[in-house]
Amino acid sequence: MAAPSSPVEFRVSPVDAVALEQRAADLGTRSLKKAAKVQGLKLAIAMMDLTTLEGMDSPGKVRQLCQKAKRPLPARADVPSCAAVCVYPDLVPVAAEALRGSTVQVASVATGFPAGRTDRATKLREVELAVAAGATEIDMVIDRGAFLSGRYGVVYDEIVAVKQACGAAHLKVILETGELKTYDNVRRACRIALLGGADFLKTSTGKVQPASTPPVVLLMLETVRDWFLETGNTVGVKAAGGIRTAKDALKYLVLVAETCGDRWMVPQWFRFGASSLLTDVAMQLEKERTGRYQRAFDFSAD
Known about the structure:
- This protein has helices at about 15-25, 35-45, 60-70, 90-100, 120-130, 145-150, 150-165, 175-180, 185-195, 215-230, 245-260, 275-290, 295-300; strands spanning about 50, 85, 105-110, 135-140, 170-175, 200, 235-240, 270-275.
- With about 300 residues, the chain is of the alpha/beta class.
- The protein starts with 16 loop residues before the first helix and ends with a helix.
């Protein structure tokens, strides 16, 4: 993609914060019952990127996570697989081997995750190595230092370079919205990522608070909807960080349905970055089936 001809292309209209937060709050009051709730819970599982991004991660832990992603509830054939497993680059070969033959994608964080404080050549090499090892999705972090100092062209150029390094792999651009502080900054970061060729906009690394919030995700959904109307190109949204309950997941699905419509109600275009969300969703599914809650341990144990 050619570089924007001027900074004008990075400009965005101001966000009406009061209206945005009120809209998110209003949609948050919607509830799903019975069959619709069960359908929503299954869809939430299908949209999950099961994630382990800790210093103590091991090949054994990744293999267990991959097994869980393939069969979230082994006793129930009606429950779908998760969308992806997200790991550090050095564990991509382990995940790729464990997921071979399944529909679950191999995602890898890259570009100096989570801070992004390394030189561009190293970032691009990290992406190339992850893709060569079997990653089909790359989650990059933007240079927030450059963004917050107004060097938007630097952020754009890096996204373009990473997109090229991804080859056939999809690119999720992590904005780290908790560090961007304002809705106007979030909208501008979305715009830069879209111009740079992002396949997904992602809220956060999960390492900074606040992470995903309904108003921020609503703003991102409005941005990709408007981008589709402007260009005809569909870009996804990934809500990551702090989403732990089935109730929260269903609220986000309402945001997607009411803002973007059915086109985005599939794992190809909406994701949850989840490390603990699956346990609560599985408990709720079984409660809907049996009428009683089971122990969280029954679902969280590998």
